[in-house]
From TrEMBL:
Protein's recorded name: Cytochrome P450
Domain of life: Eukaryota
InterPro entries with a match to the protein in the record: Cyt_P450 (IPR001128), Cyt_P450_CS (IPR017972), Cyt_P450_E_grp-I (IPR002401), Cyt_P450_sf (IPR036396)
Species for this entry: Digitaria exilis
Any single GO BP term: sterol metabolic process
Pfam families: p450
Gene3D superfamilies: Cytochrome P450
Length: 487
């Protein structure tokens, strides 16, 4: 229904842009002669609807491969109202990740309008390095070490309340609830309750509109996302003011949560390192990134382990050995996580097969050349993770689940910039280590407490992207408490 309404809204919005396009195209400066091959499609719409439709029917990989077969690994198109160049392959990934000056991190206009203009995903140059450095202060191992116990408590409370005593659960919504609880606790110090639940609802609607065509008309996902963003922003502004007051009174410290950490940072002159607008915008981005991607990973790990009893048994043994060294009821520690090597390999292989981000965007800050083609200044660059993840010349039998492809956190034989679930280069995901901690703690308690099997048949065990991957029906499973006691 929402998709149909979006189409109607787009048709209604096309007339003016087309007229403007026809009136002004003669005034546009000429494009370089050696643009990549491909079609830009209709004004405004371009290939956006085709890509979104392919993602929602889980045929996006095929759609991308069709473009590659037709135009080659570099092609032009139009996505979300912006001229775009699609780049594929390890060399293209390396070019995207390491061309920091020529290709700036830039999301579609819809993302910027929803999450804010002063976030790490929008800023470039010195501003980007300043924001990234500030977030890295909160996400560095020395800080995360302090939060393992807090994450441990959130996971155990969640399993007690939402899993124990039930014969069946639906995994995806529960994982979303868990990861939102963890991230909102660490970012803002939000305890369980009405405020956290309301914020979770707003962020679910925010996610629906982030990859939408930015047409702000009634009844569209984009309009609902904008309204939810405004409500969430007001709450985060309130939390920021309250945290600032607590810091001044000595009732909070730099390590209390992300807001406290960012407020505590100062430049060499003693002035605040970030403005309050920047704190709110980057809290929005961090909440989206830290919630949705982690819930996808955990859900698909559950899905994969249901079909792989041998790997699950090996994981149970790994976690029983960790638990055997601890006093009953004692929380996990940073050192315990280092012993969970198989579990992290399972996570990485799951990310290879089902990367939460289908792809991402950069924007050319100047005319730049790649593979003999010019990418004009201001154009988007779109890279896609699955092109290398599912390349048989890079990963042998790419459709096969094999955690032992990974050794010490990276593929054992794949060339650089082939496994890109966390991106790469100077802009590699700043929250990668946080995702590791969250995943390992959750799986420790989940595999020790429960056995499970899928409720749906193998033919029904499929997923869609909207825009993140989601199992059909949310992945319902039957669960059974394991006989051995768990802490």
């Amino acid at each position: 229904m929402a998709f149909s309404v979006l189409v109607i809204a787009l048709i209604a919005a096309i007339v003016l842009p087309v007229i403007l396009h026809l009136r002004t195209r003669g005034n546009n400066k000429p494009r370089p002669a050696n643009l990549p091959p491909g079609s830009m499609g209709l004004p405004v719409i371009g290939q956006s609807l085709a890509l979104l439709r392919a993602m929602r029917t889980n045929t996006a990989d095929r759609w991308i491969q069709g473009r590659v077969a037709r135009y080659g690994p570099v092609s032009k198109l139009s996505l979300f109202g912006t001229p775009t160049v699609l780049l594929t392959g390890p060399a293209a990934n390396k070019f995207v990740f390491f061309s920091d000056d020529a290709l700036a991190m830039k999301q579609p206009r819809s993302v910027a309008m929803i999450l804010g203009e002063r976030s790490i995903s929008e800023l470039t140059g010195d501003d980007h390095r300043r924001i990234r450095g500030a977030l890295a202060e909160f996400l560095k191992p020395d800080m995360l070490r302090k939060y393992v116990g807090k994450i441990d408590g959130e996971v155990r409370r969640h399993l007690d309340e939402s899993w124990d005593g039930r014969r069946a659960v639906t995994v995806m919504p529960l994982m979303k609830r868990l990861t939102f609880g963890i991230i909102s606790s660490l970012l803002f110090g939000l305890a369980p309750g009405h405020v956290r639940d309301a914020l979770a609802g707003d962020f679910a609607r925010i996610a629906e509109g982030m990859w939408a065509i930015p047409v702000d008309l009634p009844f569209t996902a984009f309009r609902r996302s904008l309204r939810s963003s405004a409500r969430a922003r007001r709450l985060l502004e309130k939390i920021t003011r309250e945290t600032k007051a607590k810091l001044e009174r000595g009732e909070a410290s730099r390590s209390s949560d992300l807001i406290a950490c960012l407020l505590s940072l100062a430049d060499e002159r003693g002035a605040p390192l970030l403005s309050e607008e920047e704190i709110v915008d980057n809290a929005m981005v961090t909440l989206v990134a830290g919630n949705d991607t982690s819930s996808v990973l955990l859900t698909f790990m559950v899905r994969q382990l249901a079909n792989d009893p041998d790997t699950l048994a090996a994981m149970v043994q790994e976690h029983e050995e960790v638990a055997g060294s601890k006093v009953d009821g004692e929380a996990l520690t940073w050192e315990d996580l280092g012993k969970m090597k198989l579990t992290w390999r399972v996570a990485l292989e799951t990310l290879r097969l089902v990367p939460p981000l289908f792809g991402n965007f950069r924007r050319a800050t100047k005319d730049v050349e790649f593979d003999g083609f010019i990418i004009p200044k201001g154009w988007q660059v779109f890279w896609v993770s699955s092109v290398t993840h599912m390349d048989a010349s890079i990963f042998h039998e790419p459709a096969k689940f094999d955690p032992f492809r990974f050794k010490d956190g990276s593929p054992a034989t794949a060339p650089p910039c082939s496994f890109v679930a966390f991106g790469g280069g100077p802009r590699i995901c700043a929250g990668m280590e946080f995702a590791r901690v969250e995943t390992l703690v959750t799986m420790h308690y989940l595999v020790r407490r429960f056995k499970w099997k899928l409720c749906c048949s193998q033919s029904e065990n499929t997923f869609v992207r909207d825009p993140l991957p989601s199992p059909r029906n949310g992945l319902p499973i039957e669960i059974e408490r394991r006989a051995s006691p768990s802490r």
